Amino acid sequence: MSTRLTPRRPELPGLRLRCARPVRRLRAAALGTALVTVAVPVLSACSGEAVSAGGSAALKWTSSYFPTHWDPVVGGSGAQFRELSLVYASLTRTDETGKAVPDLAKSWEYNAKGDQITFHLRPNLTFSDGAPVDGAAVKAAIERAKKQRNSALFGDLTSIASVRAKGLDAVVHLTQVDYQIPQLLGERVLQIASPKAAASPEKLDQNPVGAGPFIVTQLIPGTKAVLKKNPDYWDARHIHIDNVELTSAPDASTVVSGLQTGAYNFADIDPSQARAAKKAGLDVFVQPGFNASNISLNVNKAPFDNDKVVDAVRYAINRKEFVDKLTFGYGEETDQPFPKGYVAYDPKSANAYPYDPAKAKKLLAEAGYKSGQIKLNLVIPEEDPQAEIVQSQLAKVGITVNIKIDKNWATPFFAKDLTFSLYSTTGRDSAAQTLTAHFGPNGPLNLSSPYEPAGFEAAIAKVRRTPLDSPAYPEVLRAATRAGLRSKALVFTYSSPNLIAKSKSISDLPKNPAHIDWTGVTISGGN
Fold it and tell me: What range(s) does the Solute-binding protein family domain occupy (predicted)?
């Protein structure tokens, strides 16, 4: 889950022969924070080359999602999991089809009933602090994610009752039959930290220790992380990058110039910068993803306790305007939390509420409201052009929206105290988890909790009981999507792109949905 409520950001790479040491502003999150630094050489920011002084392949990645927390339990499964995956590996990972494949676990199997799954870990693996990667480490990671006071993951692990460690095996006992577990326990929800380091979560947050492809050698909170290749990573032979310099992205308008000067060679960019990036000779591409933005309604509060008002809002939304104004043609209209073509996308639910402002006005009149009589506060954490579009579109049907900025927006949102808000998510590798997050009675994205649409609970339970390789699985999953979309609490609007700009010296990345995977990626000029 991600609470990114603003469009995206900028970056681009270019080649010159002089060294550029860009002046960067410290973000508010880094101010007043003690700097934690491990003594190691810092990568050169010389432009024109993707190699360090020693001739090694160097990735210079500037990210709008620079981790606020390096403890994966606290960081949760928001967009920054992509950056944390430099350090942490998981039991499974996702391939280009969205299927769970081995990572730290070489294999797994369920018992006959489907309420227990055993993960078999690869032998002879260690975390970067020397602690063994074994069943006990998996048990510790899951228990910490379920119990740690500031965990952002406990709500994702409700199907797990307990874990038993048996050498290199982790036996996961479930509260219900749930064949989604291999999908769930991937990069987003269970990045595994060294239990030795995690004994002090506060220290882990400043000095991350995992078993992933890279090891942090220097960390300046909120600003920069320097990493080197982990020679003990299980798939190290397919990691061709020797060093990484990860920085917090500056203002969107300056990322492309940073890519041109060689200060960076990889960046997520704002769609508004895509044209400039292409003109600069950079590779610009959309990494597949599950991003979806929505308008959140609380049906427990007036006026959304009236179904006709909810439907009026549905018909008042022109999704094309979001795409045109916010994504410069790179995004897509969406009326559900999955992209077209994905196994969970339900074609039968497509365009159920087409843009029809006249019908919206009629429904409001039938609900007993005159034009201008409904006045709403749209509460968001910061300025957001999405909010202005919603304000404008609802004004056209007679609903007055006052945009209210509250930097502590999350507290009333997750307490379900707001009437009206916006939310954007990056989805989950488990489609069932995406659906329950949006539509379940305790779903974090369901502003109307404990409300859930009729039939959803039974439909999602059937999904969990259906093995992923069953021929019936796709239709069972789509039926659950269809049941969820009967919800009156969410109006989906558009999908923002995972837009990337990179130097041509970096080879193409695997097209794993929503992930950034460095397996097999090369940087010309490096080893």
Answer: 100-429
Q: Using CA atoms, how far apart are residues 324 and 328, in angstroms rounded to an integer?
A: 5
C-alpha 246/C-alpha 227 separation (Å) is 8
The answer to whether residue 205 scores a pLDDT higher than 50 is yes
Nearest to 313 by CA among 236, 419, 217, 415: 419
pLDDT digits (tens, 9 = 90+) for 48-100: 445 444 458 999 999 999 999 999 999 865 789 999 999 999 999 999 988 99
Residue type, 203: K
Q: Three-class SS of residue 412?
A: helix
User: How much is the pTM?
Assistant: 0.84
pLDDT at 403: 97
Q: Residue 378: what are its φ and ψ, rounded to 5°?
A: -100, 105
Rounded Cα distance between 92 and 301, Å, is 41
The pLDDT score that the predictor gives to residue 525 is: 65
Q: State whether residue 481 is helix, strand or coil.
A: helix
Rounded (10°) angle between helices 431-439 and 456-465: 160
d(CA 435, CA 297): 17
Give 259's Cβ-side CA count (13 Å radius): 36
Contact 99, 187 (CB under 8 A): no
